[in-house]
């Protein structure tokens, strides 16, 4: 049994608090720490409410911590949690920049079993089903991958976490990990290099959208797009020798999702059912991993991959074609 604590009780903190409402033999919610006491009072749960983040981290009642605070606080909280030998599930992005992630990598490289970056779709059965599908020899080799994640924010507010540079705002830092982690998942051990990247800045001087083109093993083209000003398709398409595969819900698959498979002569949907939400799946997979059971651990984003993703995000944010 992994006894969890939640740090930060905004939207994501509340999403994960809901995941504990079902009884489980492998995870249990023990405590919550939030700067907003009003939000905590509305939980109606019999859990311990800590006065500070540090008090929760130091508590002997807590085995693992879910960090769901603002982007600019992740590094210090992960550092402190590691200092007190806690298991850590940290919301993306792990750090504000490559330098922060490199510092945390050096801290955690000898404690890799204690850390996961919370990119939730990786734990959903749909991701495992996709990899099984791609393992079919009749599909052939992957030739091109397209992946996007974008939504329209109606009003740009300089103090919003999405548009404030000091809070870790910007489309690339906030959303870029999704297409990049998808490419990383499919490339396996193949080499991936950035061919071109660009972005557009908004009035608060953070990137409001961006595009990146990568080359995998001199054979696969990967194109990623993110945006905070446009509702993108939010799909992933994989073009293989004999098949086109489409994921309509790649990032937040529902309890019943599907993968579209299209050949020259046939179209069908591979249905994936789960009795858990995407966040419940991640909580279960993380708890199993922290319990030293390797089930689905190859799909989780460990500290090695966090560093790899951060390196690509850093290059993308610097862009070779700024608009």
Characterization of this structure:
It is a single chain. It contains ten helices and 15 strands. By secondary structure, it is of the alpha/beta class. The chain has two domains: 2-121, NAD(P)-binding Rossmann-like Domain (Rossmann fold, 3-Layer(aba) Sandwich); 124-275 and 298-322, 2-Layer Sandwich (Dihydrodipicolinate Reductase, domain 2), CATH 3.30.360.10. Strands 14-13-12-11-7-10-9-8-15 form a nine-stranded mixed β-sheet.
Protein topology:
Layout: E1 2-7, H1 11-19, E2 27-33, H2 37-41, E3 48-50, H3 53-58, E4 64-67, H4 74-83, E5 87-91, H5 98-108, E6 115-118, H6 125-134, E7 142-150, H7 171-175, H8 177-187, E8 192-201, E9 207-216, E10 220-227, E11 236-240, E12 244-247, E13 256-262, E14 267-273, H9 278-290, H10 303-318, E15 321-322
Parallel strand pairs: 1-2, 1-4, 2-3, 4-5, 5-6, 7-10, 8-15
Antiparallel strand pairs: 7-11, 8-9, 9-10, 11-12, 12-13, 13-14
């Amino acid at each position: 049994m992994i006894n969890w604590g939640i740090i930060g009780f905004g939207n994501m903190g509340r999403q994960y608090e809901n995941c504990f409402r079902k009884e489980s033999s492998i995870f249990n919610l023990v405590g919550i720490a939030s700067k907003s006491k009003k939000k905590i009072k509305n939980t109606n749960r019999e859990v311990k409410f800590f006065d500070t983040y540090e008090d929760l981290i130091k508590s002997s009642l807590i085995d693992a911590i879910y960090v769901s605070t603002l982007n600019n606080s992740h590094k210090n909280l992960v550092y402190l949690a590691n200092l007190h030998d806690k298991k850590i599930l940290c919301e993306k992005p792990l750090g504000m920049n490559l330098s922060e992630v490199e510092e945390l990598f050096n801290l955690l490289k000898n404690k890799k079993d204690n850390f996961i970056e919370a990119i939730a779709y990786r734990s959903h059965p749909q991701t495992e089903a996709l990899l099984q599908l791609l393992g079919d020899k009749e599909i052939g080799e992957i030739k091109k991958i397209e992946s996007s994640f974008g939504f329209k924010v109606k009003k740009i507010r300089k103090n919003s976490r999405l548009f404030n540079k000091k809070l870790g705002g910007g489309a690339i830092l906030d959303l870029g990990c999704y297409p990049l982690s998808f490419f990383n998942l499919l490339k396996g051990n193949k080499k991936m290099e950035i061919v071109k990247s660009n972005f557009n800045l908004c009035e608060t001087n953070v990137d409001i959208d961006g595009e990146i083109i990568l080359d995998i093993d001199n054979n696969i083209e990967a194109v990623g797009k993110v945006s905070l000003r446009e509702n993108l398709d939010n799909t992933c398409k994989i073009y293989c020798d004999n098949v086109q595969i489409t994921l309509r819900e790649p990032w937040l698959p529902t309890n019943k999702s599907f993968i579209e498979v299209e050949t020259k002569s046939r179209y069908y949907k591979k249905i994936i059912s789960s009795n858990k939400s995407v966040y419940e799946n991640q909580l279960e997979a993380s708890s199993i991993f922290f319990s030293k059971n390797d089930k689905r651990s190859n799909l989780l984003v460990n500290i090695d991959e966090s560093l790899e993703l951060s390196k690509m995000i850093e290059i993308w944010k610097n862009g070779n074609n700024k608009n």
